[in-house]
Amino acid sequence: MTDFFPSSSSSNLSSTNSRTFNSSTIFQVLERPKVICISLLLLFLMLSSIIGSLVICFTIFTTRRLHFAAYYFVASLAVSDLGVGIFAIPISLAYNLTFEMNGRWIFGVTACDIWILANFWFISASIFNLCAVTWDRYIAVTTPLLYASRMSTQCVIRMITGAWAFSLTASFINFYGLKTSKTRKLCEIQGLPFSFVMYSFVLIYLIPIITIVFVNAKLWVITTRQTSKIQAQIVSLTFVTASDTTQTTRRRAKQMKGNLTSRSAIKTFRTFLVLIGSFVCCMTPFFTVLLFASLFELPGFVLYVVVILTYMNSATNPWIYGISNKEFRKHVVSAFQKRFRRSSNVNAVEPGS
């Protein structure tokens, strides 16, 4: 989520550019196919992140049935994606255009510092929010009947607050390392000391990702077993005869209630599995390249590609919730229908008032 590499060579981004750069106007820049393609892609990713995240937050906020732990974490994750769409990608788009015009960062040191810190924060927040989502799904799948008590509102608030606070702390540490680096270039991630890169790679990426993948692999095994068990019990229930006692019928009904809860948790888990898979595919290249970039210089094109991948993660996250989860799609449609009906009722009353 940090875009510091709009050129084909990382050395081109120094605030004091060593090579002669011929200034161009915005119209001359927009005549270049590469610039147009990158700008349109960034614009699309920005709109997708902002619109998708706002839809997710609006739907969760206005739908009572979604007021439980799993979707509180989704809302928190959507806020981090919204931050990328508002802070990271627009400046990235402006940076891409102005660099092609002037060959340097033109927005000043303060704007650069705010931009870098915000990018570090949002990428860390996404990771730690996914860790919280993973824990929530683990509780929901393994102990569905105890889910409400174990994941209370107070517990969820503490977890979300902790995820954002810890990510902010981690971001300040990285930001400090970049600010105090003697080899730093203005608005470049290259120059971050190796010790700080290793800190980011291990604490912010490696440990959380290993935990997320391991826990979700275990959950996949559990959900597969539970699905088979539920199907078997549904089949056996169809053979209930009139000779069954009332006690047996009640016991079977209780089993079915637990099975329905498990089935709902399994469906939600599969949606998050897609979400986590997308996250791993988009973030792994970024952190891997970041690690190698601290050891030797890499082509700017490689750095830029992995940065755009992180933007793609934020742009696709909101749509994964809606596309992969049929129930959530229904809630989105319902939320906007209610909103439009209220607006129509207000407009209908106003003329006669």
TrEMBL record:
Subcellular location: Cell membrane
GO molecular function annotations of the record: G protein-coupled serotonin receptor activity
Gene Ontology annotations for the cellular component aspect, listed alphabetically: plasma membrane
Tagged with keyword Cell membrane: yes
A GO BP annotation: adenylate cyclase-activating adrenergic receptor signaling pathway
Membrane topology designation: Multi-pass membrane protein
SUPFAM superfamilies reported for this sequence: Family A G protein-coupled receptor-like
Pfam hit, one: 7tm_1
Similarity section: Belongs to the G-protein coupled receptor 1 family.
Descriptive protein name: Octopamine receptor 1-like
Native source organism of the sequence: Actinia tenebrosa
Encoding gene, per UniProt annotation: LOC116307166
